[in-house]
Amino acid sequence: MVRRKLSQHQKKRIQGAQDAISSSDEGHSEGLVISHHGGMVLVERDDAQLSECNIKSNLGTIVCGDRVVCKIMDNLECRVMAILPRKNFLQRIDGFGAIKSVAANLTQIVVCLSVIPEPNLYLLDQYLISAEQQDINPIILLNKIDLLEEEIQDPFRLESIYLPLGYSVLLASVKSGQGMDALFSVFDHQTTVLGGVSGVGKSSITLALLPEANIKIGNISDANKEGRHTTRTSRLYHLPNEGNLIDTPGVRGFNPALDQNASISAGFREIDRLGVNCRFANCQHIKEPDCSVIAALSRGEIADSRYQHYLKMINALKS
Ligand SMILES: Nc1nc2c(ncn2[C@@H]2O[C@H](COP(=O)(O)OP(=O)(O)OP(=O)(O)O)[C@@H](O)[C@H]2O)c(=O)[nH]1
Ligand SMILES: [Mg+2]
Ligand SMILES: [Zn+2]
């Protein structure tokens, strides 16, 4: 994990660019960012017009779900002049240490896993910690259950590990329709981002909800059972029951942007809960005496994978 923060200078520059702009100014209007690609953003203005907008310089990153102020210029081009304050901002750090912004103003994230490609529980825990940190309600989905051999119950231990922690775990299949009503109902009245690796079926879920939309679905490579990174840019879709759904490109990892060990333990619900009983207030739950987390681990009350992922994230932060 890499520490990345905007410098004071960068913050001032961005703030300066936004100062004194309001949608009540002549020719300005507010809108919702639907997608962002090639230096342009597609904005749904509050008068319901869709506009391709360029972006005023020094505004900082704009993502799906942002609320912005835009202006029709003299040459009739639309320009984003300011980003309105965000309720939350989901970001990750890519394999090269660069911050990648995903989406803003979310109420939910559905972490999409599938039978093929198989779930990666480290990636799942990375998503969960990001969600906890940003106050976004996380839901775990296992898609493609039509591919499960029937006699295997909870084959990836999603229910046994995550249900006791209070997470919702949904099982569904776009192909057979199993579990789809329950999945669809969680989108009502929410702004949800779909996350996960390539090929788990994020776009297939979006298309199942919006059969008229022009959405590309990829296939799974026979050789490595991975997706082919079909979705290239995130896009927000309006759903019939006042929901907004953001389909995103598949990721290889979802390193959360964190800068302290404390934020890692706070993102692991069971470690956070047990940690209040450790002898030392600043216990890292690694080898300290009278550590409640290590005691619970030795009694089998914490899933080994969760503790290993906790250590892996702590070590990544140190390196
Ligand atoms: N068997 C089965 N296949 C599915 C199911 N849902 C999706 N698929 C298939 O999985 C493949 C990948 O689906 P996509 O929807 O493109 O996956 P994605 O997560 O959007 O992938 P990226 O855009 O690359 O991130 C396609 O061949 C789909 O037909 C399902 O429930 N069962
Ligand atoms: Mg896709
Ligand atoms: Zn401890």
Q: Would you write up a description of this structure?
A:
There is one protein chain. This protein has nine helices and 14 strands. By secondary structure, it is α/β, with parallel strands linked by helices. It folds into three domains: 76 residues, Nucleic acid-binding proteins (OB fold (Dihydrolipoamide Acetyltransferase, E2P)), CATH 2.40.50.140; 159 residues, P-loop containing nucleotide triphosphate hydrolases (Rossmann fold), CATH 3.40.50.300; 59 residues, Ribonucleotide Reductase Protein R1, domain 1. The strands form three sheets. The protein has a six-stranded mixed β-sheet, with helices on both faces. A five-stranded mixed beta barrel has the order 1-2-3-5-4. Helix 2 links the parallel strand 8 and strand 9. The longest helix is centred in the C-terminal third of the chain and has 15 residues. The relative contact order is 0.12. The N terminus is likely disordered. Bound molecules: guanosine-5'-triphosphate (GTP), magnesium ion (MG) and zinc ion. Zinc ion binds next to helix 8.
